Amino acid sequence: MDHVLQLGALAGALTAIVTAVYLGGRWMLRTLRRIDDWLDDWYGEPARPGQPARPGVPERLTQIEARQAAIEAQLRPNGGGSLRDAVDRVEQTVRGE
Description:
Blueprint: H1 2-43, E1 44-45, E2 54-55, H2 57-74, H3 83-95
Antiparallel strand pairs: 1-2
């Protein structure tokens, strides 16, 4: 009878261990997939059949900074070619100067 109880306890312990390893393994796989997705988003992905290339975060930040600099250049007078110069000319015309 003792052997039956010991086998039952051993089976229960093995079941608990297998369940913990299985659930821990699933958690680890999900976590690794999330990290992989994040790295793909950060570094971007090359084009593949049916999908265009996706730039990564550093490349996108560089593009945003270039666009911001171009916009800021239009907000400062530069001797006639900026949007600010055009607004100033319109204002002078409206005032009759």
